[in-house]
Amino acid sequence: MKAKTEHHKDRRNKMRFTGFYATLCASLICLSAFGQDAPVNVNIPHLKEPPKIDGVLDEWSGYQPIAMSRPNVDDLRVEKACLGWDKDNIYLAVSVSDKKVVNSNPYEKLQLGDSVDFRIAKDHGSKAFRIILAPSSNLYNSKPAFAMHKPDGSLITSPGKNDESGIRWAVAVNTEASNWSVEAAIPAKLLGIEPKLDATAPFVITVWDRDDPDKDEWKQWWKRSESSNQKAQVSAWPLMVMAEDVPLQKETEAAKEAQQPAQGTAKSKKISLSVPRHKPCNIFDATKPVKLDLSIKSGFSGKGELKMDVTNFFGKTVKSETIPVELPLKDSMPLPLDNLGKGYFEVNLSLKAENDKGETAEGSDKICLGVADITHRTAEEVRKGNYRFGMKMSYLTKAWWHGNAEWDEREVTTALCELGMQWTRVLMQQTSELGTVEMLKDFPMNAIIKVERFPKELYDEETYGPMKEWEVKYGKGAWVLKTLPKKKEYQAWLKSELDKIPANQNVFEIWNEAWDKMSPEDLAKVSQWIAEIILKDRPDAIIGPNLIGSTSKYDYDSKYIDAGGMKGMKMVALHPYAGSENRQWMRDYKKWLRERLGHDVDIYVTEYGSHSTPKGPAKRSEREQAQRVVRQSLALYAEGVAAFTPHWVGQREQNPTYHEDWFGFIRLNHEPKPALIAHAVSGRMIDTSRYVGDLWFGPGVGAMLFERNGIYTLALWTQEGSKDIKLDAGVDQVTVVDMEGAEKVVKTEGGSLPLTASQDVLYIVGLSPTLEKVATTELNPDRWPKPEKPKRVSRTITSFAKAPVMDGDLKEWDGMFQIAMMNPKVNGDDASGMTSLSWDEKNLYIAVEMRDNEVLNKKSRAKLYQHDSIELFVSTEPRDVNPGYGPNDYQFF
């Protein structure tokens, strides 16, 4: 299918199977918030008097807490986590701020609800004990619960004072303050640890927040705070080091400065460097000097040097200065940036100073900026001029995980307009932050207006039953996207919202990725309701659904058309992501629509793009993000897409390993990423141009020729590596523009121009019109050679002479056909095994034997696959055309 390949949200991807195939979803992979950093050992204090184990942590107020990560959830905060020791015990104390306490799990799975999870081992080569304390367990009369998993697999639960284990524990819950805390005293002898000064033991503390265990959506595994990576092996855990005393270190600026690395025996103080950004978003007009001022806060007197290095997108140093500085600095000082030329730049600052006593101080900072051509077009000029470049809008409140950074929608919208990206995609009734109506009135912006969602009072209880019961089955709040509202009331509400939208805004997209939310028949129905209202007031409106982009007669798009959804529609919105570069797919889809509808419709691409995840298995550089986005935009433009808005202006930047947090083109600190400048340069070079055709320089080289006002521009790149080519420019000189906008005039050699094509797109401007004669709009299949399609795998399974008894005992399956089940990304003891298949004249038989260290499934029928489960897909119509689910394709849970 030609749908989103890099960005899934909670999508259930459609799959085609020509035989049978079983998948096991037995484990979720946790991505650590700690990246690849080495664990930090922690000193824990010797307690002169044992604390009273009552869950109240008064005795721990004078001890240094253990650093815990920020969780990916708003209502959980670990206020304090402490460890201590004496000659008999290891002590644990944790205080948690949590608005809602939920745990309805048995003892062996207490960690799957709100809980403190403490793991400790004798040494790095030993197996760990796991102690779980839950503030309230609904399974046990809403009382606190305790469990300890021993290395031998046995379980200790709810021990008392006289329990032979000797463990003592307590939980205190303050519902008014939304706080709960735990204490435990664990006999060191039980753990095999000899408590003494400088003794060590590896450990991890994790606090889980599971407010709605029945609504996992695959994200609950990030809703935790941890002292280190709880998924790491014991051998990689940090050590607790038994110290004599560990006094509290207050988190003040003075304390932080005191903890800075020492030079020799002297401590180096921290200097704060501050460079207020130029608005909007550190984007500078290429016709004016770049001006930024540096402020220094140090509380230090002395002399030093400020080192400034400016690098461009390609990592080349374009300016380097060393400036003498005398501290304290009374006023801000201008940075000597002057005229950098066009492009994306990073300014790296470092300052070192020393006083007469030999004391030192140092500080550093990095600033990202862009220098570009600034546009001043009105929204009307954009529409009439057929400009197509834009960017999807994003909305954020305070980013508590990023120093409470506030996202300024007005500033980023100003930046987009000045860079000439004057199409965006917004929700019609958006009112929070920068509302849709406010944006369209205050900025020269054109919007693809998403028509989706409806007020709670329009929920159709007569059709779907009571909302509360519906939400139990299908998820809280999901009705707003997955059900149809009351028609008459909905159309009246829609009319009132439409009246607020300026009359010159005339493009409307129906729903967002509805194939994950409602049937094609339901989308067709609500589409017609929407079209009735919009076309009555705005007969020239361009309206259309967000579809998958599939041409299969069995898939969503075809069923939507069959249900009459495209009546009155003039466009289709797509989200192709990496598929954006597949120009043949776009052509085939447009042709298919023309054949099905009897006329052409416009294509708007309201989501595509790439991410720049800094760590983990999805890691991708900012340079690669920029390269991909530019290639995608060039392909969409060449294939006549009416407007395209990549996903999206900004993003959370919270989890460094989670790609969904890194699609933004502007950082949370409002500085540009390279993709922003590259996208703007691409628009400046080709927007409003006529696509002429492709030139041929052999396999692996992209070369698109465009013409605007008689000037011919070639976009040139490779998808991997580099290649030397010779371009017959047909002129004495050309202007070569790199992907970030830097320009240089280059003379040709008798009309011939040697170039090196790479993954960074080049624009060659001012070519001879004669190149149009050799350009072709035909797509050469050899340009991007594809590996040969693998042959269909066939397997032979033997039949049962006698049908097996359905009792879970697999003795009857000896000697039958087997398929190994495994996933290299998941530990074998958590998700691996064997599947056996057989048949007789009446049935197909399947037997699965799996290893799984935790068994869990609390999902509704529609989402069983999100927890431990087996899925069997069977097709009785093997085919090479018309992919997607057909009437003879089946899926079993």
Descriptive terms for the model:
seven-stranded mixed β-sheet; alpha+beta; disordered N terminus; 14 helices; globular; 893 residues; eight-stranded mixed β-sheet
Describe the protein.
The chain is 15% helix and 29% strand. Strands 2, 5, 6, 7, 8, 11, 12 and 13 form an eight-stranded mixed beta sheet that branches. The longest helix is centred in the middle third of the chain and has 18 residues, at 520-537. It is globular. Mean pLDDT is 87; it is low at 1-38, 216-221 and 250-266.
Estimated share of beta-strand residues: 25-35%
Count the strands?
43
Envelope shape: globular
Helix content: 10-25%
Q: What topology does this entry show?
A:
Blueprint: E1 20-24, E2 42-44, E3 76-85, E4 89-98, E5 115-121, E6 128-137, E7 143-149, E8 155-157, E9 168-174, E10 179-187, H1 188-191, E11 200-208, E12 224-226, E13 239-242, H2 253-258, E14 262-263, E15 266-270, E16 272-274, E17 283-285, E18 293-297, E19 302-312, E20 317-327, E21 333-334, E22 343-354, E23 360-372, H3 379-384, H4 409-418, E24 423-427, H5 436-442, E25 446-451, H6 461-464, H7 467-474, H8 479-482, H9 487-498, E26 507-510, H10 520-537, E27 542-545, H11 556-562, E28 571-574, H12 583-597, E29 602-605, H13 622-638, E30 643-644, H14 674-686, E31 690-694, E32 701-708, E33 711-718, E34 723-728, E35 733-737, E36 743-747, E37 752-757, E38 762-767, E39 817-821, E40 832-839, E41 844-851, E42 870-875, E43 889-892
Parallel strand pairs: 2-13, 15-23, 17-23, 24-25, 25-26, 26-27, 28-29, 29-30
Antiparallel strand pairs: 1-42, 3-4, 4-10, 5-6, 5-11, 6-7, 7-8, 9-10, 11-12, 11-13, 14-15, 16-18, 18-21, 19-20, 19-22, 22-23, 31-32, 32-33, 33-38, 34-37, 35-36, 35-38, 39-40, 40-41, 42-43
Helix pairs in contact: 9-10, 10-11, 13-14
